[in-house]
Task: inverse folding
């Protein structure tokens, strides 16, 4: 009987995760600091949740 091997999908640089509320309805997850900086320039009133 073969044992199933589960592989976790890992994305390079995914250790930095931040939820960002860009407006009243929309919450996005940002993976890198560069991406966070880009979103903050587009939406200066965005709030980091965690």
Result:
């Amino acid at each position: 009987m073969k044992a199933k091997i589960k592989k976790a999908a890992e994305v390079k640089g995914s250790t930095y995760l931040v939820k960002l509320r860009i407006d009243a309805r929309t919450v996005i997850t940002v993976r890198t600091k560069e991406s966070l900086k880009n979103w903050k320039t587009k939406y200066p009133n965005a709030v980091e949740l965690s």
